Amino acid sequence: MQLYINEEPVDFTLESEKTLDDVIRSIEQWLADRKLIISALAVDGAAFGQQDLEKRKNAPITEIGEIRVTASDFMRLEMEGVGALTSFFTSFRPRLAARDETGLAELLKGFSQAAGTLRFVLAGGEDQEADGKRSEFEKMFTGTTAGMIKLWDNPMLERAIALCDYFIEALKRKSTGYDQLDHSSKKITAETIAKLRAAAERLKEVSVLLQAGKDGEAMQTIASFTELAQLFLHVVSDVLAPPASKSLTVEGADLESYSQALNSLLHELVEAFEKKDYILIGDLCEYEIAPKIIALIDTVERSLHS
């Protein structure tokens, strides 16, 4: 079975996984550790939604040829969901209060999507009150038409409005929380820097490992480094957002161009592994990638401490 994450081939070793569901759960956990989430899934060329997965979750992994996963930043998706839900509820509440049948009919077309986004943003068992209100909201509006709402008695309507008010306030709190993430983002970057610097030093030893016939250890070293490097580039792009990133240069190149060049080298490294070109692998690791990532780390550290 071949696994791709964001179009990149991943060396996935089966452990206790026996079914498609087992593999997907393992991938989800691996991504969660990196603050990522599956945003799209394809199995053997066919797009897979939750219902498709339910139907084939017990399929033996021996029947699966290829899994392609699109992984997205959890917080970025959550922020997008908060924005979409805020827009939905601020439009929905006044139309609900006015029993505006035409306006409600239009907004109810997006109810299923809003309910799904609400499950993603507010559910999960961490906040039982929010989870309970979300369930109540879904039961209240699932299958409900604008005409039915117009016939509701006042207590029912008031309860629905109160739920909207609750979600609007909860979404405001979520949105405010995102505005306070700058410090924690820098902490994440500092932690990543320390790990990546150590990984870059180990990367210089890959050619020695290959010459000693320790191919597996060399591959693991590169895999660990690549994961950290991708995370680092992703987090840095968030922490050093424009205009700060525009003025940042690494070895004479702007941050975006330098990151693109580094990504190109990582892709070249993957291709070299596929071709088993161990001389190129060693040269790329020791003389190209490791020095470049260290130069980037030094520049980012100076920027964060300035």
What features would you describe in this structure?
Helices cover 69% and strands 9% of the residues. By secondary structure, the protein is an alpha+beta fold. It has 3 domains: 2-74, Ubiquitin-like (UB roll); 77-179; 182-305. The strands form 2 sheets. The protein has a 5-stranded mixed β-sheet with strand order 2-1-5-3-4. A hairpin with a 2-residue loop joins strand 6 and strand 7. Helix 5 (111-122) packs antiparallel against helix 6, helix 9 runs antiparallel to helix 11 (215-239) and helix 9 (182-203) packs antiparallel against helix 13 (278-305). It is elongated, with a radius of gyration of 24 Å. The two termini are 48 Å apart. The model has no long low-confidence stretch (mean pLDDT 82).
What key attributes describe this structure?
single chain, 306 residues, alpha+beta, two-stranded antiparallel sheet, 9% strand
Low-confidence stretches: none
Please estimate the helix content.
Answer: 55-70%
Compute the number of strand runs. 7
Annotation field: number of helices: 13
End-to-end Cα distance, whole Å, is: 48 Å
The order of strands across the largest sheet is 2-1-5-3-4
How would you classify the helix and strand content by structural class? alpha+beta
Query: What's the overall average pLDDT, rounded?
Result: 82
Order of helices and strands: EEHEEHEHHHHHHHHHEEHH
Largest sheet: 5 strands, mixed
Counted up, domains total 3
* Beta-strand content estimate: 5-15%
How does the overall form come out from the CA principal axes? elongated
What value does the Rg take, in angstroms? 24 Å
